[in-house]
Amino acid sequence: xxxxxxxxxxxxxxxxxxxxxxxxxxxxxxxxxxxxxxxxxxxxxxxxxxxxxxxxxxxxxxxxxxxxxxxxxxxxxxxxxxxxxxxxxxxxxxxxxxxxxxxxxxxxxxxxxxxxxxxxxxxxxxxxxxxxxxxxxxxxxxxxxxxxxxxxxxxxxxxxxxxxxxxxxxxxxxxxxxxxxxxxxxxxxxxxxxxxxxxxxxxxxxxxxxxxxxxxxxxxxxxxxxxxxxxxxxxxxxxxxxxxxxxxxxxxxxxxxxxxxxxxxxxxxxxxxxxxxxxxxxxxxxxxxxxxxxxxxxxxxxxxxxxxxxxxxxxxxxxxxxxxxxxxxxxxxxxxxxxxxxxxxxxxxxxxxxxxxxxxxxxxxxxxxxxxxxxxxxxxxxxxxxxxxxxxxxxxxxxxxxxxxxxxxxxxxxxxxxxxxxx
Length: 423
Ligand code: 7TS
Known about the structure:
Helices cover 38% and strands 16% of the residues. It is of the alpha/beta class and 423 residues long. The protein folds into 2 domains: 39-43 and 314-417, Alpha-Beta Complex (Aspartate Aminotransferase, domain 1), CATH 3.90.1150; 65-311, 3-Layer(aba) Sandwich (Aspartate Aminotransferase, domain 2), CATH 3.40.640.10. The strands form 5 sheets. A 7-stranded mixed β-sheet has the order 4-10-9-8-7-5-6, sandwiched between helices. A 4-stranded antiparallel β-sheet has the order 13-14-17-16, covered by helices on one side. The chain has a two-stranded antiparallel sheet with strand order 1-2. α3 (77-96) crosses α10 (297-313) and α12 (361-370) crosses α14. The longest helix is centred in the first third of the chain and has 20 residues, at 77-96. The radius of gyration is 22 Å and the shape is globular. It starts with 21 loop residues before the first helix and ends with a helix. The site of ligand 7TS has 17 residues, from α4.
């Protein structure tokens, strides 16, 4: 392993088999050790972006300070080391999602670019007038708008699977809407506005029984649950590095090899070609075919370090710990008078959205900020699902494995304060 690729394993992580030691984990996240408005920072905006352990920043720093070079080109030592580190990160991502073939991992800027890539290179060439793309009512805008754009260009139709009052996918409606015209299902794994965990394995099986491929938007699932793309059997899986404790500007598309091989490139440029003349260009193979131009090398290295870090903590352990934290928070918040939790699915991860009678979500956000508590308020880039619940905005607390019960207590106390101020 090169100096760049070699990750300094954090000394503060618990060993496998031990319970999650949150206080020790928090030492790896210096950003959490600060005061905001004179109060200890309580960071509960992890669904927007999560904080980075030192190991991530150090890996990126090491690359820039000691190993910076472009990849896939030079024959000099630094370039070879950078290529090794970049491709090593791809292998780390592949292992994390239990991908069989590392060539099935394409680096992109984030989940949004990943969905756009699949929309342009996979869906668009297959669509004609009257064809249908199926999404759900709980999608983030990035899993709505690209499909609307493709539908506009091709004459295809966007169809939407409704959800029930708890924010769960209506599987009966999904079955009904899967038609001979359905060309693709694109569905969120964990909703960023409700926290619902969708039964994606079942969705994929039902779609596949009718020969329909499935894209899963894993932006909010990958940081909270173990994800095994071979077991899911999804055709595409996308996620963002910055929600996965890695840097911004890097994300991942998993695509089945046979799809990636058959798909035309997304963008043209360097690195995605084998040879170019003015008459004809021969494209590189996947995944490089989809990675035109100099990639975000430091970003990929940082993401690899983030995955190494959370893999050592253990996704099973993270899921169990966060599940308890979420239940603790939901129980406490739902007892506050005037609170309505938006999203009460049986299976939830990471997210607690709520509204407070007579208090605008933005006012809750402002009061909480004064208490040092960071949450997100608004429509969370998922306006249709908020319309489904007839609310223009919610206050959303979203947890990560470094959050504590004490922090939830601070949140509950601050919400009480908001009710007193406005009640
Ligand atoms: N899909 C889901 C489910 C998301 O939650 C988000 C971002 C995206 C896709 C897009 O990810 P990006 O990294 O490409 O922007 N969600 C949020 C959020 O809930 N608050 O800020 C960003």
